[in-house]
Automatic annotation (TrEMBL):
Belongs to the short-chain dehydrogenases/reductases (SDR) family. SUPFAM superfamilies: NAD(P)-binding Rossmann-fold domains (SSF51735). InterPro entries: KR_dom, NAD(P)-bd_dom_sf, Sc_DH/Rdtase_CS, SDR_fam. One of its GO terms (molecular function) is oxidoreductase activity, acting on the CH-OH group of donors, NAD or NADP as acceptor. This is 3-ketoacyl-[acyl-carrier-protein] reductase beta subunit. GO terms for biological process: fatty acid biosynthetic process. Pathway: Lipid metabolism; fatty acid biosynthesis. The keyword Nucleus does not apply. Residues 69-240 form the Ketoreductase domain. Pfam families: adh_short_C2. PROSITE patterns: ADH_SHORT.
């Protein structure tokens, strides 16, 4: 009887010790987070409480609890790719910006929040360029955690008026280029896991007159994304596709905006930053793979 009572008392002592240690850990963690947020709130107040600075500070505070990864963004020097690079840097990730124009890639990398970002030149339609880029990344930066394929071109024309060289250029850049970059990134991701987001298009889902080749390249990218997602799921690698609609970039600069806006239920063009938010969501979602996320203001609903 005395032994039984002693055992019960000993168990109570252990429970009290565990509760105390847990409470102490929770208090320390909560206090450190409170201090961090307080520092950013003070900075925000110093800047007059402006929304842009406070929003950036909020992102930076959140980034402290997100594991920093090496993010590689092809087509990262302008448009959607640039917006993705900026958002990833704000989240605390190290970013490698790749573009055909080396100066543009380096300028974008230098403009990003944080340090040690890298700008490289790469023509994704050329296999040797892609291979060389990943060799450089592996030597100077380490293991790739995120890959975003935002490099793309269009050569819009009716099929009967399309030149063969333009067709090949679109297919090699938009489809083959993403296939090559995914293969290059997988060599780094297979042992550590990772996430890939390809940038497609709403016309790859619903088609569009005068964009047969461009639509084919983006529809092919959707099929590739779903197939690759199945191949690498067991290696903890997620592969998804974001399909934007009319986004305010250089690629849509020549469109008749008033006519295009009438076709969009939300009544406006999207911004690159809005697409970047969708990309970030998929990159940081470990239980989503093989999906197509439309970011088109409801354009796919229109007839």
């Amino acid at each position: 009887m005395h032994l039984y009572i002693a055992l019960i008392s000993l168990n109570k002592v252990f429970e009290l010790i565990l509760i105390y240690r847990y409470s102490l850990y929770t208090d320390i963690y909560t206090h450190s987070v409170w201090l961090h947020l307080s520092a950013h709130r003070a900075q925000c107040n110093q800047h007059g409480g402006t929304r842009s600075f406070c929003t950036t500070s909020s992102h930076l505070a959140t980034a402290t609890i997100v594991m920093s990864r090496l993010a590689v963004v092809f087509g990262g020097s302008r448009g959607i790719g640039r917006a993705v690079s900026q958002l990833l840097a704000q989240r605390g990730h190290r970013v490698v910006v790749l573009s055909r124009n080396k100066e543009a890639a380096q300028a974008t990398a230098e403009s990003l929040h944080g340090e040690k970002h890298l700008g490289l030149s790469c023509d994704v339609s050329k296999e040797e360029n892609v291979q060389k880029a990943f060799e450089t990344i592996s030597k100077t930066c380490g293991t790739v955690g995120y890959l975003v394929n935002a490099a793309g071109i269009n050569r819009d024309a009716l099929l009967l008026r399309s030149k063969s060289e333009d067709m090949l250029s679109v297919l090699h850049t938009n489809l083959l280029g993403s296939i090559l970059t995914c293969r290059g990134a997988l060599r780094s991701m297979l042992s550590h896991g990772g996430a890939i987001v390809n940038i497609g298009s709403v016309v790859g889902v619903k088609g569009n007159s005068g964009q047969c080749v461009y639509s084919a390249s983006k529809a092919g990218l959707e099929g590739f994304t779903c197939s690759l997602a199945k191949e690498v799921a067991t290696r903890n690698i997620q592969v998804n596709l974001v399909a934007p609609g009319f986004i305010r970039t250089d690629m849509t600069a020549g469109l008749e905006k008033e006519e295009a806006v009438r076709r969009i239920p939300l009544g406006r063009f999207g911004e690159p930053a809005e697409v970047a938010q969708a990309v970030l969501f998929l990159l940081e979602s470990p239980y989503i793979t093989g999906q197509v996320l439309l970011v088109d203001g409801g354009l796919q609903l229109a007839s």
